[in-house]
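name: query_chain
kind: protein
chains: 1
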Amino acid sequence: ERIEEIRSQYSKSERNRLATEYGIVKLEAYDMLKWDRHLQTPQDAYHSISEKVRTLLDATFNVFNAVGEIDFIKSWKRIEKPSHWCRMPNPLKHRQSFIFCDMLKLSMLMPFILRRFLKPHHIKSDALNNWSVNLGIKQNSVTSKLCICWAIEAKALKLAFSNTMSENIYQEFQEFLNRERDVLI
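structure:
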């Protein structure tokens, strides 16, 4: 009689609801989870790390003054990129349209680009003064701290996306993340 009641339903969702209610069909483990798109976002290592890189890129580009932006673009255009990479657009103007793999490629280049051009006069004066005071270092050292931060980020990314993850690699990765946190905080 219950089976006939289930079969007589017009919608599939109603048939499934009755079958579950009568214990004929059991819910899969994931079906019992509730999804709230306002509270939950899917996270995996690739997207989390890429979002962190996007945030660091935004923070870096936002401290450049006009001269810094011009000199960054000059260095960006001159830097050697692997021939099999697709051409990437201007990261200052079009970084919001970058896909995650473009951001990760840019993060590998950032230490080299910054070391080639970055001087204290490329950074907005208020940001330079704040960093100098907060870090307790001379203004000339602020640029090297930013370069170090990007070098640590690039090394951490190399370890995060290595083909194998041994205990030693994991420990080294954790060490780089701790160093990056110390530089950023």
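note: Residues 2-32 form one domain.
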